[in-house]
Amino acid sequence: MTRKVSDFGSLQDRIAAPQSLSESRAAHVDVELDGEWTPGLLAGWRRAADGAWWGRVAVVQGDDFIVLDLIATRVRPASSSGR
Length: 83
Known about the structure:
With about 80 residues, the protein is mainly β. The protein has a domain at about 20-75. It is about 5% helix and about 45% strand. The chain has one helix and five strands. The chain has one helix spanning about 10-15, and strands at about 25-35, 35-45, 55-60, 65-70, 75. A five-stranded antiparallel beta sheet has the order 4-3-2-1-5, with no helix packed on it.
């Protein structure tokens, strides 16, 4: 058996590395924060080792915005209510 060399490291290194966010367009979503749904911008998804999906979301809080990683159950498509 021959060892294959990759610019991305060994197979063991690649398996052990954290999974990166999927590359996709940002999407408007609603996110659950403190029991209320608020508008956010979804930057991407990643799948955790346990199989759960997590979304990276930017939301406005006060005069700032924050970036959060939220379990998929706390992210939904943006409502069309036009709040």
